[in-house]
Amino acid sequence: MSKQDYSSPPPWIAIEDEVPQEWRNNVLSKLPREKGWGEPYLYQYQGFWYQAFLFHNVLRCQKHFQAQNTDLIVASTPKSGTTWLKSLAFALLYRKSYPPNDNQHPLLSKNSHDLVPFLELDIDFDNPRPDHLSFYSSPRLFSSHLPYQSMPKSVKESSCKLIYICRNPKDAFISLWHYTNKLRAPEMGTLPIEEAFDKFCRGVSLIGPFWDHVLGYWQESLKMPDKILFLKYEEIKERSNTHVKRIAEFYGCPFLDEEEASGVVDEIVKLCSFNNLSNLEVNKSGKDWSGMAFNVLFRRGETQDWKRYLTPDMVDKLDRITEEKFHGSGLML
Ligand code: A3P
């Protein structure tokens, strides 16, 4: 699909067109591809599906990113609560420099995606953005949607740590479907839920298959519990304070008794709550570097919203796939 098919291409389509033609011919054209959810195509690389521009960056990230032992990486499958976990991680890691009750806290004026860069999306390895550079001093905080299998070698070989968030697949699917529809060009209309569902079940979704992504991190977290902390959206939602403390302990910056007594953990949870973040001006009307409105990242922020959309047959099918994929792994979502 070419650029002129859209009267006003949404940001991600515009970026898609920036991928160099020579690279398209030499590299991209050799990969399996399928029609995307809104983007022209998704391409399969190392078992997972990427947009062209994203894949272009993945290769550069795999080649150039040098992890440091003190790095913390927020990893996730898309629509699992990345924006939330980035906010929590930022608030707790930098709580000395930015007390969470400070009315000048960076999260009040910037979206967490502007504070915690995606390794494979936000960093131009030749010219890092100046507002990211301020956080490049140790401890550095990054994020990534890359499957563990595809993480740069230095991430696997260094002692850097990862916190991974995943979510019930039915909620992840519904969230992704809504998100896609908000970003599709108006001329394309809404992607029918049946079509999206079929793609999701076949694993053809942004950095899908969803189940392989989750399982990759789950299995590594069992082998290396000191390196990967495996978290579930639903559990953070239910007991946010406990999980904020778990993350701080895991990284090696546990809350002091005085901090807990003075309510720092509560303040972090409150600062990063859906209600608070989604009502900030930056998240209501701000945009990221690509032009994507931040408000598309905040929809309902609830669990089991799938009940409003999925038919009993769809529920059966997704549950069956999840059971089969996770069978014997000890993982339940
Ligand atoms: P819903 O579409 O179900 O509402 P990601 O950040 O990985 O793109 O995930 C987006 C999902 O997380 C959306 O789910 C969004 O509403 C939800 N979300 C965003 N901020 C949140 C927060 N502070 N607390 C809980 N959920 C949040």
SS strand fraction: 5-15%
How do the helices and strands follow one another from N- to C-terminus? Answer: HHEEEHEHHHHEHEHHHEHHHHHHH
Q: What is the residue-mean pLDDT, rounded to a whole number?
A: 92
Going by helix content, strand content and strand pairing, the class is alpha/beta
Number of helices: 18
Distance between the termini: 36 Å
Largest sheet: 4 strands, parallel
- Read across the widest sheet, the strand sequence of neighbours is 5-4-6-7
CATH superfamily of one domain: P-loop containing nucleotide triphosphate hydrolases
Radius of gyration, Cα only, in angstroms? Answer: 19 Å
Family: Belongs to the sulfotransferase 1 family.
Keywords: Transferase
InterPro entries: P-loop_NTPase (IPR027417), Sulfotransferase_dom (IPR000863)
Protein name: Sulfotransferase
Structure description:
- This protein is an alpha/beta fold.
- The chain has a domain at 67-183 and 211-326: P-loop containing nucleotide triphosphate hydrolases (Rossmann fold, 3-Layer(aba) Sandwich), CATH 3.40.50.300.
- Helices cover 44% and strands 9% of the residues.
- It is built from 18 helices and seven strands.
- A four-stranded parallel β-sheet has the order 5-4-6-7, sandwiched between helices. Strands 1-2-3 form a three-stranded antiparallel β-sheet.
- A hairpin with a 5-residue loop joins strand 1 (33-35) and strand 2 (41-45).
- Mean pLDDT is 92; it is low at 1-9.
- Residues 76, 78-84, 171, 175, 178, 272-274, 277, 297-301, 305 line the site of adenosine-3'-5'-diphosphate.
